[in-house]
Amino acid sequence: MKNTQYDYLIVGAGLFGAVFAREATDQGKKVLVIDKRDHTGGNIYCENIEGINVHKYGAHIFHTSNQLVWDYVNRFVTFNHYVNSPVARYQDKLYNLPFNMNTFYQLWGVTTPQQAKDKIEAERAPYADLEPQNLEEQALFLGGRDLYEILIKGYTEKQWGRPATQIPAFIIKRLPFRFTFDNNYFNDTYQGIPVGGYNALTEALLEGVEVITGINYFDKADDYNQLADKVLYTGKIDEFFDCQFGALEYRSLHFETEVLDQDSYQGNAVVNYTERDVPYTRILEHKHFEFGTSDKTVITKEYPHEFSKDNEPYYPINDEINNALLAKYQELAKTAPYADKFIFGGRLANYKYYDMDDTIEAALALTTQELV
């Protein structure tokens, strides 16, 4: 006789948990989803302010070349035709991103691909013999002084909270030069924002699923575990094991959002600020993600900072030390008592940076493995 109320308890109502919940429910499983926040959706949650869907936890632009994933999300929502074309601002001058012919014209006045290639090679020439030992040397080796100083140095130092000379060279493996006049940041086949915002996607995924928000799993973990045959945990893997080997490191962010009594502030959804002395890395103007036409606008300034237990983990620091620590927790997850009861999934449990399509692909792969 079954002693539990649910087949699966899912800890975390973010995208990974929501996809697994949908698939498990559709296969006849009884599921309970809990989340410590007061809303579902995790970091893709949107807050409606002045009729504008505000990306509460930073910009999320859905993009993928995975046909399976694209077909999957389109079962639940329709996507608009937003194309991510950020602009960089440095000393009151604007530069298109990613690095393309528009950028090269703005930097150097070159007008043909060959002129751009010749200029880049000339910029790189003084550093051709470098064996890069840090990010600064790597960027100079790959692109030269102008690109580094204007578009890379300050922004990256703000992101990482340290001088570029103290950031590992492997952070920049290559600089993606595009010798066409194309400001589309992504190379993926499909791209867009859900019509009506990301909450529409989360709500569709969780339709008919029992969800309780505002619950911290760790307050009564033993009690919650007894509710279900299996537990899918999507939070921080080190926290699950009470950080017994030490805490995994992250970079975090905080956001300052304001409503402006004007119809447009910067004319683009994303503007990066690449000067080191400007404390934020970018400003988002949310209405432009969905081609809004309201009389007011909402902007968010994004500030990187060190992670602590009191703020949100955003970017894992996947260096040698943290990866070794992760391996210990992953081994513990396999060998701990009742290990067969617990499943770990999602960006925090796997200590990986996932784009949204990666998250969905991984969740669907888990359902194939688990729900057989």
Automatic annotation (TrEMBL):
Keyword annotations from UniProtKB, A to Z: FAD, Flavoprotein, Isomerase
Gene Ontology MF annotations: flavin adenine dinucleotide binding; UDP-galactopyranose mutase activity
Cofactor(s) the protein requires to work: FAD
Domain annotation UDP-galactopyranose mutase C-terminal: ranges: 151-353
A Pfam family the protein falls into: NAD_binding_8
PANTHER family registered for this protein in UniProt: UDP-GALACTOPYRANOSE MUTASE
Family classification: Belongs to the UDP-galactopyranose/dTDP-fucopyranose mutase family.
Protein name: UDP-galactopyranose mutase
Naturally occurring in which organism (per UniProt): Pseudoalteromonas luteoviolacea
Record lineage: Bacteria, Pseudomonadati, Pseudomonadota, Gammaproteobacteria, Alteromonadales
